[in-house]
Design goal:
With about 350 residues, this protein is α+β, with helices and mostly antiparallel strands. About 35% of the residues lie in helices and about 20% in strands. The protein has eight helices and 13 strands. Strand 6 and strand 7 (about 180-185) form a beta hairpin. It is globular and about 60 Å long. It binds 6-O-phosphono-alpha-D-fructofuranose (P6P). It is found in: Cytoplasm.
Length: about 350
Amino acid sequence: HAADAHRTDLMTITRFVLNEQSKHPDSKGDFSILLNNIVLGCKFVCSAVNKAGLAKLIGLAGDTNVQGEEQKKLDVLSNEVFVKALISSGRTCILVSEEDEEATFISPPLRGKYCVVFDPLDGSSNIDCGVSIGTIFGIYLVNHLEATIDDALQPGKNMLAAGYCMYGSSCMLVLSTGNGVNGFTLDPSLGEFILTHPDIKIPKTGKIYSVNEGNAKNWDGPTAKYIENCKFPKDGSSPKSLRYVGSMVADVHRTLLYGGIFLYPADRKSPNGKLRVLYEVFPMSFLMEQAGGQAFTGKIRALDLVPKKIHERSPIFLGSYEDVEEIKALYAAAQNQI
Ligand code: P6P
């Protein structure tokens, strides 16, 4: 009767967030209001992504749709939706979006105490072929009035919350507010995100590695050696499977649920890798640690990184605790040889 229980206890993300809030007696509910505005943005984007094929929302901006309206690309539309939802929440003071070159500073009366960093539609190059894409976000506290850009350049370990919403065969929002990781699936008939994956823990080790093998020519020694071990294990165990979607939210979501390791290493072409620190590396690293996994930049714990620029990139190795330990050992050995 699990299904019936699900139907009757209906733990929605809104109730879940309010339950979390009740654990902080001094909370005035600002955080819950902020999260609920992020959830609203995710619901809108989910609906727009699902209609994309039909309403010809895909393709280049500048096209006109059947109504002859100026067509916005989905990622531009998604960004506008999140920026508006976050500002109108009245709980933010700084927004950093992958879509906007500069940070957005909010002034009174709508100014609040949180800085939100987000990629409104990550993996959007995959939209036209129907591959899963997602929104990634992280939330920092800014505990003084006049916010500056430094309040957005905090190390990932300062994040209060992080999450992603994956727009795939179902719409799933995975969230951590610092007490573990929970997954919510959108029930379109209710228009509510329902708790379907309580207290997600990533397996300690996995049989999957996830990397763009097309960059192999440019990898450094430790990464090349690690991938070699995945394919030709020295201990005689069976090789790992390669699974790579090329959409970070899809690759990380699979890693979180099935275990294994996701890598976007540095290479000779891109010495800092490709993924962005604030709104790709930090939120996914936060979630991995909260789920019992870990995240490493090739030098340090990913969440200890202190970014200098809002669109800065970093190499990232994240996933099952023991799998990341292996690549950390290879980088440490290489460091000792220098
Ligand atoms: P590559 C998508 O463009 C993205 O930003 C991430 O979602 C994804 O993990 C990565 O880039 C894929 O990059 O170089 O393997 O195509």
